[in-house]
Amino acid sequence: METRADSGDSKPGRSVAGFYALGAAGLLLAAVVVSNALSDGDSAEPQATIGPMANGIEALRRAAEASADDARPWQELGFAYFERGEYAEAVRAYERAVTIDGGEAVLWSALGEARVMASARDPMPPAALDAFNRASQIDPKDPRARYFLNVQKDLSGDHAGAISGWLALLADSPEGAPWESDLIRTIEQVGKLKGIEVQPRIAQALAARPKAAPPAPAPTRGPSAQDIAAAGSIPPSEQRAMAESMVARLEERLRADPSDPAGWLMLIRSRMTLGEPDRARAALEQAVRANPADAARLRQEAAAMGLR
To answer: What pLDDT, in 10s, does the model give residues 162-215?
Structure first.
């Protein structure tokens, strides 16, 4: 896909990557699946401790370097670097993660995304494409890999094929998926630029979506005894880093399966505890979209936490 003429960016790869990232921000940052180690609901309600972001990154880095056989700390470090826009560092962290555990599709697709964003001139570096293909081989339904493999189709000139692939992803996405609106925006933007009618097909894809599953009874738990002991044994400046890491894991798991009102309430409470009301409000909006039947209760409990 051509760089937009009005971008004013002298780095074509970054400009094109930015176009796709802006068009699918919810998908790109969702990390829709997390490692098997997180699937047991190990999340926490963090304490209100204060520490600069630099200390948080340093704590994550030390934890990762101390983990020779556990990919999770490297995944968390990569996610933190990506959120800060330090894409080259994110690439290095995710490369360590896949070296430790090469069987997790989410790690490969996260690595591919970081490689895309780290590239100054190539909108789809061969190494990024390889990572997305590896993710797809492990899990053909990995949403991030599916999204970017269709980006490659668009970049190669197969605009109709890319749109068809994105529409298939939309049809497979659960109702209320956090990336839904941004994925639709991407389809609409490319359709408009290439003169391809997409609105009727978007409507068909939305109608074909799987309905959100009924929420499971209280699948989310608070910190374990080990978590509490660990939190009490580290300096206050590092406790926030630990809390932010655990909240990030909870947020990723909820985006993978948003049909968990209790989990969303824990995330909202955690964001409020961390002094992040805007992010708490965004979590509430996502929770309501994914669980409309629980909207009144979600809003009531969020208000009780001080969220207006």
So the answer is: 999 999 999 998 776 667 888 899 999 999 999 999 999 999 999 998 765 554
pLDDT tens digits for 137-156? 999 998 889 999 999 999 99
For range 4-10, the mean pLDDT = 36
pLDDT(238) > 50: yes
Task: Provide the domain count of the chain.
Answer: 3
Whats the size of the chain, residue-wise?
308
pLDDT value, residue 174: 77
Q: Same domain for 244 and 288?
A: yes
Quote the longest CA-to-CA distance of the chain: 60
Using an 8 Å Cβ cutoff, are 235 and 258 in contact?
no
Q: CA Rg, the chain, in Å?
A: 20
* 199 found inside a domain: yes
The average pLDDT across 108-113 equals 94
- CB-based contact 101:71 (threshold 8 Å): yes
Determine the structural domain holding residue 199 and report its residue range. 157-209
Residues contacting 286, CB < 8 A, separation 6+:
178, 254, 255, 258, 264
Other C-beta atoms lying within 10 Å of the C-beta of residue 55: 15
What six digits make up the tokens of 250? 């909870």
**CATH number of the domain enclosing 270:** 1.25.40
CA distance 82 to 89: 8
The two counts, helices (H) then strands (E), for the chain are: 16, 0
- Spell out the residues 6+ positions from residue 22 whose beta carbon is closer than 8 angstroms to its own: none
- Which two structure tokens, joined as six digits, stand for 285? 């909006």
Q: What is the pTM of this model?
A: 0.62
Residue 48 bridge partners (DSSP)? none
**The two three-digit tokens of residue 42, written as one number:** 């190990």
Spatial separation of the C-alpha atoms in residues 304 and 308, rounded to whole Å: 9
For residues 55-71, give the mean pLDDT: 85
